[in-house]
Every structure is written in structure tokens, then in C-alpha cells.
Amino acid sequence: MRVPRASERIADRLRGLIVRGEIPPGDMLPPEKRMVEDLGVSRPTLREAFRILESEGLITVLTGAHGGPQVRLPDLSVASRHIGLYLQTRGTTLADLLEARAEFSAICVRLLADRCTPEGLEELTTCVQDQSRVWEAGVDTAADFACWVSLTRVFHNLIAVHCGNKTLETQSRSLTDVLGAHRAMSIRRLADRDAVADTAYIPSVIEDYAKLVRLVEAGNAVVAEKHWREHLYGLFNLERAILTGSVSHV
User: Any bridge partners for residue 69, and if so which?
Assistant: First the structure.
């Protein structure tokens, strides 16, 4: 077995204090000189521990007279980037990723219909209304399309946030983030080519979203899950076209 380096042991100790809330977000870690003395390590070892925690998104090192390591909440986007890189190294296909997102999201929807709060329902309703307004104003440029896509991402994340299960929320949002990174690259390609994706499908998507909100409001978990799974699998070919840059010119 590999013996952990001193910096890893220090990082592990500080990580425990942070995740247990003993050092809350926004607080500064003790001065470096004091930590070196209290922990009995060298300054380079302590700084290496800081780099480990910073790479995990648990601290940010501020510069200046009052700088130093400041505790922050873990950022899900950091985990999403690692997941995305890992999936790439495994040769994961886009179809595989879309299937996983569909299954996670469908389960979230079933729980959402049982557990959604009035506040969650209002946020979902508002998101669908925003989507309708964007469509009615015209999705004629890559920027318009980017706005529309960002609202679909918001809707998916709202499903995850309000389903009442933290583990499923994290998994679902991570997959949405990974897909979002692919979409962002595709949209940049569209902008470079003065092109937009075929947007004729947008009204049917908005209607599917609106139907889901109605089913959630009615508490119809079984039908809501079935509807959402069918919606996501029905979009497979379209999603692949969007994420691989298949477009029609303006």
C-alpha cells in the first residue's frame, strides 16, 4: 500500500473540517505561520495541501494583504468536468450519455410528482413561460438558440433540485452539465459559421415541458415518469444532431 504524503494527510484533515461544517464557507483558514506550527509541517508541504484542496474546489487562495486560503462550497462543475474527462477516456458514446441522462431524469420526475413543493412548481412553470417568450420573440440566430438551450438546461436542473433526493440531484445535474459543455461547443461552431440549428422542434418541446408541469401539479407520478422518459428518448436523434453540430444555414 502507498503511504500518503504529508501534504495529502494535511489536506484530508482540513477537508474533514470543511465538509463537516467546522470551518464554514467564507471563513479564512488560520494564518500560514500558525498552521505550520500547529500541524508540525513545512511551509511547502502546507502549500501543497492547499493546492489539493483548491483543485477540489474547497478553498480559494486570495491574494493581497488580507489574503490566504478561504473556504468555499464545493462546486458541482468541478466534479462534472472530471466526470466528462473520465467518460472521454472510456470512449463513452453520446448515445450512452443521453440514455443515462434520460433514465436519471425520469426517476427524478417520478419523485418530483410526489414531492414537489409549491415553490418548485412555480419555478418550473416560470421556466416554461420564459421558454415560450424566447420562442415567440424568434430564435433566428446562434445567440437566440443559446438562450433557448440555456432555459432547457435550467428546466432539467429544476427537476433534479426539486425531486427531493440529493444523490439523484447531483448525478442528474452532473450529466446535464456534461451535456451542456458539448452544447456550448456546438453553439460556438454555429456562431462561427453564421448558422443555427433546425428549430422547428421547439414548440413541441415546450408543450412536453408544459404537460410535465401539469402532471407534476396533479401528483400523477406514474404518468409523469412515462411521459418524461418518452420525451427524452424521442429527442435522441435530435440531441445527437445538435451536439454534433448538424445545422441548417440561416
Answer: 61
Domains and CATH numbers, the chain: 6-71 (1.10.10.10), 77-249 (1.20.120.530)
Cα distance between residue 107 and residue 104, in whole Å:
5
Over residues 153-195, the pLDDT tens digits come to: 999 999 999 999 999 998 888 888 888 777 777 767 766 666 5
CA distance 164 to 166: 6
Q: Which three cell numbers stand for residue 247?
A: 445545422
What is the C-alpha to C-alpha distance for residues 244 and 131, in angstroms, rounded to an integer?
23
Strand-pairing partners, residue 68, are 62
Question: Which three cell numbers mark 117?
Answer: 413543493
pTM of the entire predicted model: 0.75
Residue type, 8: E
What are 238's three cell numbers? 435530435
| Beta carbons of 227 and 212 less than 8 angstroms apart | yes
